[in-house]
Amino acid sequence: MTPELSERLAWTVLIVATGALGYLLFNRFLLRRAEDKVFRLAAYRTGLPAIVYFTTPTCVPCKTTQRPILEQLQAAYGQWLQVIEIDASAHPDLAHEWGVMTVPTTFVLDAQGRPRYINQGVVSAAKLLQQLELEDYSI
């Protein structure tokens, strides 16, 4: 490997690592920012894990992919899971407060109402189940 190629590779690794670290820190910031907002959601009930789902009426992936996944989880876990859907276009102030920049965006809350994960874009049922840690609940 030539010295020039090694230098380019080192810069590439540094740039990618900086971007990844920035992404992780930004997500942590959004989760902390959401902590004090959870209990202001009228639909939220304490004691159960929840998914707060930001969408819009014009979001095609929301309608065709994310909503069916959330409906499947709600049907499977019924009383052990709450899904709170928020129309970001009807409630832009709420979307801004939560730091939503794209739809679909989902926040996964634990049973104590603490935001644990944020997913920007479509997220699979398997990933949501892993994030929810629902194995402690029986169907």
Mean pLDDT: 90
Approximately how much helix is present in the residues? Answer: 40-55%
CATH homologous superfamily name? Glutaredoxin
| Cα separation of the termini | 57 Å
Sequence stretches where pLDDT stays below 50 over 5 or more residues: none
Shape call: elongated
The largest β sheet comes out as: 4 strands, mixed
CATH topology value: Glutaredoxin
| Element string (H = helix, E = strand) | HEHEHEEH
Class of secondary structure makeup:
alpha+beta
The count of domains is 1
* Rg of Cα set: 18 Å
Quick one: how many beta strands?
4
Main-sheet strand order equals: 2-1-3-4
Q: Class, according to the CATH hierarchy? A: Alpha Beta
CATH architectural type? 3-Layer(aba) Sandwich
- What is the helix tally? 4
Query: Which band does the percent of strand residues land in?
Result: 15-25%
Describe this structure in words.
The protein has 139 residues and is α+β, with helices and mostly antiparallel strands. The protein has a single domain (3-136), classed as Glutaredoxin (3-Layer(aba) Sandwich). 47% of the residues lie in helices and 17% in strands. It has 4 helices and 4 strands, in the order αβαβαββα. The chain has helices at 3-35, 60-77, 92-98, 125-132, and strands at residues 50-55, 82-87, 105-109, 115-120. Strands 2-1-3-4 form a 4-stranded mixed β-sheet, with helices on both faces. The radius of gyration is 18 Å and the shape is elongated. The model has no long low-confidence stretch (mean pLDDT 90).
